[in-house]
Design a protein that fits this description.
This protein is an alpha/beta fold. It has two domains: 111 residues, Urease, subunit C, domain 1, CATH 2.30.40; 287 residues, TIM Barrel. It is 38% helix and 21% strand. The strands form two sheets. Strands 1, 2, 3, 4, 5, 14, 15 and 16 form an eight-stranded mixed β-sheet that branches. It has an eight-stranded parallel β-sheet with strand order 6-7-8-9-10-11-12-13. Helix 5 packs across helix 6 and helix 7 packs parallel to helix 8. The longest helix is centred in the middle third of the chain and has 18 residues. The radius of gyration is 21 Å and the shape is globular. The two termini are 24 Å apart.
Length: 412
């Protein structure tokens, strides 16, 4: 057992505690402990409070002293990424700048299919190196939990390869990688048969093997033009649910269908929502499904943001993911994207920060992180400032100078 220690003092300790999971949030609801301290042991928070008072109460503990102004908050959580890939889609990006649409590029041989071809030919060692670099970059920028999807091989052997790569990197790095099986990304171009035929093979051959090898307990499916229909997705997700998988849905990026199905099947999340309409927003507000909005995709594609303000005002929860991927969202800077979304959607700082901490954790079905509270993981980040408002005010340019994962320093 590791010895307990006190970390602090922090100019402000932003706990993100006592904020509702759903609906709008005012900045006055943020719990801020001045001159704060955190007692940690065995990777978890034992107690938080005023640093001087904690030192007085347990004076014999080791002190990890912070010698400068710093605001601490929970480690950020990215609930939607595609960071296990090979190759580049810079050509696609240039074509979009020249006026081609996402679907036109895909139909002409670019898009997801192009990345699939490159990722299939990459070795597991090459993919591990690339994923390690991207995950480490995320961790050093303060993201201590990262959801990572497969979906760039689209055959049984390749998808197993990707999920094993994610597992191996997760075991090597201090960051937590949450694997999602996205074999239902699109029907691969080399598959002879219908989309229904392809999904049947995923259910009969791939998913049982994923479960047997304990590679993931989550599945996702892309419902859209050029991907899968709502009807195809319903059958697939029901089969996956019967096998014991949690569900997520890519929905309402370009067309409707994903939200209603996610609510019908009690999915953990529905992600994208750039085209979501009032009727679907009401469905989400009445459900436990958490909307994950992806401003990086809007920036990468030059399209409208998901209506975050409308979702929050309707009583929905709201998480924010980077959607870091080689095609529509190559930037991968979660904090910058969240700050930009907040500007355009008039989100309070509390709403933006909730979207990348405990609300993002809930979208992944995680209850042990995203809040600085007794008994939860000691995943924390520290920003070199005395005022938490500087974090979003600097629009992503102010990065954490210290990062703790399970109470241990990984940056600082």
């Amino acid at each position: 057992m590791l010895k307990a220690k006190i970390i602090g003092p922090f100019s402000q300790l932003l706990t993100m505690d006592n904020i509702p999971l759903k609906g709008s949030v005012n900045d006055t609801q943020l719990e801020i402990i001045l001159n704060g301290g955190v007692i940690v042991c065995d990777g978890k928070i034992v107690k938080i409070g005023n640093f001087d008072q904690l030192c007085f109460e347990v004076g014999d503990l080791d002190i990890e002293r912070i010698e400068k102004d710093m605001v601490a908050m929970p480690g950020m959580i990215d609930p939607h990424t595609h960071i296990c890939w090979a190759g580049s889609r810079a050509k696609d990006y240039a074509l979009r700048l020249a006026g081609k649409s996402y679907l036109e590029i895909a139909q002409s041989g670019g898009g997801i299919g192009d990345t699939v071809a490159k990722t299939r030919t990459a070795s597991a060692n090459e993919l591990e190196a690339m994923l390690t670099q991207r995950a480490t970059n995320h961790l050093l920028n303060g993201i201590t939990t990262i959801e990572v999807k497969s979906g760039y091989c689209l055959n049984t052997e390749g998808e197993i390869k990707l999920l094993e790569v994610i597992r191996n990197v997760n075991q090597k790095l201090p960051v937590d990688l949450i694997a999602t099986c996205l074999a239902a990304h699109i029907k691969p171009v080399d598959f002879i048969g219908s989309s229904t035929d392809y999904l049947k093979i995923v259910v009969s051959e791939l998913l049982p093997e994923v479960m047997k090898r304990n590679l993931s307990n989550r599945v996702d499916i892309y419902i859209d033009n050029g991907a899968f229909t709502k009807g195809e997705a319903r059958i697939y997700l029901n089969n996956a649910k019967n096998l014991g998988f949690d569900l997520a849905v890519h929905g309402e990026q370009f067309q409707a269908g994903g939200v209603s199905l996610a609510c019908e099947l009690s999915a953990l999340s529905v992600d994208h929502l750039e085209m979501v309409q009032d009727q679907e927003i009401k469905m989400l507000a009445a459900s436990k499904v958490i909307p994950i909005v992806l401003p990086g995709a809007s920036l990468g594609l030059g399209c409208q943001f998901a209506p975050a303000r409308k979702l929050l005002d309707a009583g929905c929860s709201l998480a924010v993911g980077s959607d870091w991927n080689p095609g529509s969202a190559p930037m991968g800077d979660l904090l910058l994207q969240t700050a930009i979304l907040g500007i355009f959607e008039k989100m309070t700082m509390a709403e933006s920060l909730a979207g990348i901490t405990f609300r993002a954790a809930a979208a992944l079905g995680l209850t042990d992180r995203g809040i600085l509270r007794n008994g939860l993981l000691a995943d924390m980040i520290g920003f070199p400032t005395s005022d938490y408002r500087e974090i979003l005010y600097n629009q992503g340019s102010l990065k954490p100078s210290m990062v703790w994962k399970r109470g241990e320093i990984v940056k600082g």
